Amino acid sequence: MYVDLGNVLGTTPGVSKEALERLDGRVADAHERIEQGRADSEHGYAALNLPETTDPDEIRNAVSRFEDPEAVLTVGIGGSALGAATISEALDSDVDAYYLDNVDPEWVSGLLDDLPLDDTVVNVVSRSGTTAETLANFLVVREAMDSAGVDWTERTFVTTGEEGNLRDLADKHDLPALPVPDGVPGRFSALSTVGLAVAAIQGHDLDALLAGAADEADRLSGSLFESPAYAYGATTYALDRRGASINAMMPYAESLEYFAEWFAQLWAESLGKDGVGQTPARALGATDQHSQLQLYRAGPRDKLVTLVRPREKQDTQIPETDLDGLSYLGGSSLGDLLDAEFEATEASLAAADCPNIRVEIDRVDERGLGELLYGMEAACVLYGELDTVSTFTQPAVEWGKKAARGLLGGGDFEEADAVSDKVRLEVE
Amino acid sequence: MYVDLGNVLGTTPGVSKEALERLDGRVADAHERIEQGRADSEHGYAALNLPETTDPDEIRNAVSRFEDPEAVLTVGIGGSALGAATISEALDSDVDAYYLDNVDPEWVSGLLDDLPLDDTVVNVVSRSGTTAETLANFLVVREAMDSAGVDWTERTFVTTGEEGNLRDLADKHDLPALPVPDGVPGRFSALSTVGLAVAAIQGHDLDALLAGAADEADRLSGSLFESPAYAYGATTYALDRRGASINAMMPYAESLEYFAEWFAQLWAESLGKDGVGQTPARALGATDQHSQLQLYRAGPRDKLVTLVRPREKQDTQIPETDLDGLSYLGGSSLGDLLDAEFEATEASLAAADCPNIRVEIDRVDERGLGELLYGMEAACVLYGELDTVSTFTQPAVEWGKKAARGLLGGGDFEEADAVSDKVRLEVE
User: Fold this and answer.
1) Can you say how many angstroms the Cα of residue B168 is from the centroid of all Cα atoms in its chain?
2) Whole-number pLDDT of residue A322
3) What is the pLDDT of residues A192-223, one digit of tens each?
4) Matching HAMAP family, A to Z (chains A, B) (predicted)?
5) With DSSP H G I counted as helix, E B as strand and the rest as coil, what are the percentages for chain A, rounded to 5?
6) What residue spans define the domains of chain A?
7) Could you tell me if the ipTM is greater than 0.90?
8) What is the CATH T-level fold of the domain A55-180, as seen in this structure?
9) pLDDT the model gives residue A15
């Protein structure tokens, strides 16, 4: 991963080289704390050890009984789906990957109608084995397979904790069961069994994914000027403190559209607490130049834009044309056009005084993805240290879970009572 | 469209009923200005007349030569694609709709490889006929059809202005050509030829779409308490002024995921200028409860969440289960679960003092979509009036267009020179 901070120096908000140098002492302290956490396999910090602790053979063996299926369907939500989806959306495969990460009934039944259930592998992911959305969807999927005359026990595996419903189910029906690693929150689990089982089924190179991540881990150091991941984490933190409360993540590659979703969870759930936290906004280049750029350049001075691109890609030539005023396109390629738009947008943000950071990888391949995912995780952990928040927890989501459970008759919860007390001011 | 403002009263930030009543005088003035603009068919305001001025027969006739194709491919970007995509993603059809709205070469060639080019209709959309991304992609598509032995002139239509490249091309090859209506910026064109031609090919009911929009237009009035669209526009404006600089648009329906994209363009490009403008953040319920909710509840007090749902939907029963602790799910449906999550999230935001607005339509069908799209457009126009911005322009995107064109050798532009002057601070 390559990070270029040039366009945050002197923008509004912005941060000076001198300020980054002053911050670097705190980066050294934070790095020491992080390294200690990694050495002790502390909760959360253990995620940064995944390049070493994940065993790709264990994953490949667990799914080896599913030979060359037409599709793989992951039933999971949040961190149980986003890491795997980021990898499968980024890389080509003959095995199609689908994700049941919502409980919209029309969408669920539409997807099940379209899937070749007799040639689909089902991957149920929930650490606790009790996530309501995931288990409800699994029950629906299982029934659909039964109805289609498909033996679901032959086509299902689970990724779950040491105990619980899904573990019991696996034992009872002799399903392959991958463990969710200890100490790794869902949003940091892309490089574990949670994110890599689908990649294995799709035939991707797990070793290269982990090697890319290990390379990025090797670059962690006590100075933000020596580690791309820390350069990104420290600078985004410094910019937030100076008013860039929004971080627009804007990859210039369709294959990285899901990466922006993954990043949004990582950033929001890890850093959004105690009244602080930078808000991630998902964008996509070049498309969103025609949607969000007006706001980024001319709106409030509360934004940082992160521009991500691969340095190399397969290209497509634009045919020559005699269309009026468009001859300049002929002889160029779509890749040239996309690169020109990337650099033009970057410069146009700088010209409008809007801070922006360039993040690059060599290619959108296993190695590049490993670097990018690990790099952003380490950046997030550093940011959390600098902002003294509890990076690895998400206490604010519990309230709604209890309320929903109460509403469905799953127990007495005072939160459910609050729902019926809703204040109304209706306009129809 | 139904709007419930109850959960913005007394939150932080929040707005009181009394403040809304005080604002209502300005809503009346703004309504008068808007009605005058509509009566004069002024630039931008003319968009709010589309339910009357769009002729569905003209659209149906233009595409009538394409009988029951397998797919329709729209080549367009920004407002030339998002309206049509919002409708086609929301409604089921046997005709698949695709959108080439980016110039990523790997993605473009991948999509063209997968498309049945001999049974695909191509819809090229650009008002000026010179949009670089759209024309470059069209040249690539045309060549791909030639290479596949498909006569592109038999399968292509254009949606464009009265003059320009695409109009000339249509004249030369006798292609159907739909006019982009005068005075309607791209992001307000969903209910015109630009948004409805694909819907016609997909067999959707254009009359119902326009009737839904007309219903919403009929509800515009001099008081925010009488018009759902103005209730939404006035309240989001008042909340922004009180610190809710981010508006998270969170539909609880997979079919409305694209609607959030469309809304993000409408809001960002219309209102983001002069240093003001609320930043739209795209979200999706229930999925993003496991991604963004932690931040919304516990992060900075700078957010409003808009929760959107259809009141009715096709449902799917959750099978009974003896899985430990999950028996409460059996007997419920996925729709019950989704509704419980919606209401739980709404209440959990209120309990955390985070303002939220409920927006509902009866169903995700043509009529409901017409209401929703028109309602949000009118809300945006009202917001723009209240904030005294130039709602219908997007001047800040020109800089980057010139720079990109200069980089590709399409003329001398000083903006292109700025690109090579980039300041660098690289960490590798």
Assistant:
1) 29
2) 83
3) 999 999 999 999 999 999 999 999 999 999 99
4) G6P_isomerase
5) 50, 15, 35
6) 2-36+210-386, 55-180, 398-428
7) yes
8) Rossmann fold (3.40.50)
9) 98
CB of A418 less than 8 A from some CB of B: yes
pLDDT in tens, B121-148: 999 999 999 999 999 999 999 999 999 9
Domain B2-36+210-386, classified CATH 3.40.640.10, yes or no: no
Q: Is B353 on the interface with A (CB under 8 A)?
A: no
Buried b vs exposed e over B240-277: b needs ≥16 C-beta within 10 Å?
bbbbbbbbbbbbbbbbbbbbbbbbbbbbbbbbbbeebb
Mark whether A290 is an active-site residue: yes
A72-124 confidence digits (pLDDT tens): 999 999 999 999 999 999 999 999 999 999 999 999 999 999 999 999 999 99
At residue A325, the pLDDT reads 83
Q: Do the domains B55-180 and B2-36+210-386 match in fold?
A: yes
Helices and strands, counts by H and E, chain A: 17, 11
> Cβ distance A254 to B106 under 8 Å?
yes
Contacts of A160 in chain B (CB under 8 A): none
Detail the DSSP E strand segments found in A252-327.
Answer: 279-282, 303-310
Indicate if the pLDDT at residue A412 is higher than 90: yes
pLDDT at residue A386 greater than cutoff 90: yes
d(CA A381, CA B292): 17
Phi first, then psi: give them for residue B55, nearest 5 degrees. -105, 105
Q: What number is the average pLDDT over the span B68-79?
A: 97
Question: DSSP for B48-115?
Answer: GGHHHH--HHHHHHHTTTS-S-SEEEEE--THHHHHHHHHHHHS--SSEEEEE----HHHHHHHHHHS
CA angle at B98 for the pair B109 and A292, rounded to the nearest 5°:
90
Looking at residue A324, its pLDDT comes to: 83
Which chain A residue lies closest to B285 (C-alpha atoms)?
A102
If you search the block for the tokens 């604002």, which residue do you land on? B23
Cis preceding linkage at B213, omega within 30 = no
* Six-digit token string for A238: 């410094």
Beta bridge partners of A232: none
Q: Look up tokens 């390379």; give the residue.
A: A215
The phi and psi torsions of A286 (rounded to 5 degrees) equal -80, -10
CB < 8 Å to B106, chain A: 253-255, 313-314, 364
Residues 204-243 (A) with a CB less than 8 A from some CB of B? 224-228, 231
Q: How would DSSP label each residue in A185-213?
A: -GGG-TTSHHHHHHHHHTT--HHHHHHHH
